[in-house]
């Protein structure tokens, strides 16, 4: 039996010390949102209400294997909350957002990613619900001011310079929460480059692993952006890649840690190159690497990040002690356990 077809799944998440009673997950049909519902199901939690926009893609497939109490479209969430029809929640996981880094409609992003989050946070705090929301590593911009989550003051946050409208829409709420004195009472998660099962519906926002898997299947090779900076060779641009199973374990740890508050980086704490990532993918498929380099499109070249790496000392100080899944093991789990047979979490 070859390595490519001898998949052994990663262990299930460790049992949480405390569990939520009833949970609202916005964006719960999406990538990280549905993975959180899966992880909660692994802990025996199924009193979950999911709000999302299913649209016309196959996001609905993420929901099929999951256990939850109710589903509603996002536009119906606030009317049903205000009417009392949904009851109370001890935990709100707010993952619902437009996550397209190429979205140019800043008004839409401000309403969807900022105003909606602001309303939900205030309501959660007024009702005594634990509120955990998705910020983004995109708030750090090019990293010129560091990627450290320790200082959550308004002054520190004001120094950050997001490179796109999506990043700025997330940054807006981080700043608002700090200025309004809310941030220490809630948890904001700056997700880095998360990849893994349940991302198939994301189109151009899918991870390179998902895109490259299709390229290898169709052409036998992977296309990577060449470097346009002399200090980085082609394919040696670096990202902090984090497997979604690690991301949800970190998220739920912070959600169920009452002392945790403020912004936290959710990453591996390591920087790997695109060549390392694609090498792990070819290895998982039992194939020799074949790579073609192409120019970064002019439209995004000035905003392209060459290096990201999460500082996760704050996460560790909050008691998260689990080891991060090594890149090669995580890619193998994803490829052999999910991509090869087009499976979702829980299938």
Can you describe this structure in just a few lines?
By secondary structure, the protein is of the alpha/beta class. It is built from 11 helices and 13 strands. It is globular, with a radius of gyration of 20 Å.
Describe this structure in words.
The radius of gyration is 20 Å and the shape is globular. It has helices at 31-42, 77-83, 106-126, 154-158, 165-179, 208-219, 244-255, 274-284, 298-301, 313-317, 327-339, and strands spanning 23-26, 48-52, 70-73, 91-94, 130-134, 187-191, 193-195, 222-225, 238-239, 241-243, 262-266, 272-273, 291-294. The chain is α/β, with parallel strands linked by helices and 347 residues long. α1 (31-42) crosses α7 (244-255), α3 (106-126) runs parallel beside α5 and α6 crosses α8. Residues 1-7 have low confidence and may be disordered. It has a domain at 3-195 and 242-267 and 309-322: NAD(P)-binding Rossmann-like Domain (Rossmann fold), CATH 3.40.50. Helix content is 34%, strand content 14%. Strands 3-2-1-4-5-6-11 form a 7-stranded parallel beta sheet, with helices on both faces. It has a two-stranded parallel sheet with strand order 7-10. A two-stranded parallel sheet has the order 8-13. 43% of the residues are buried.
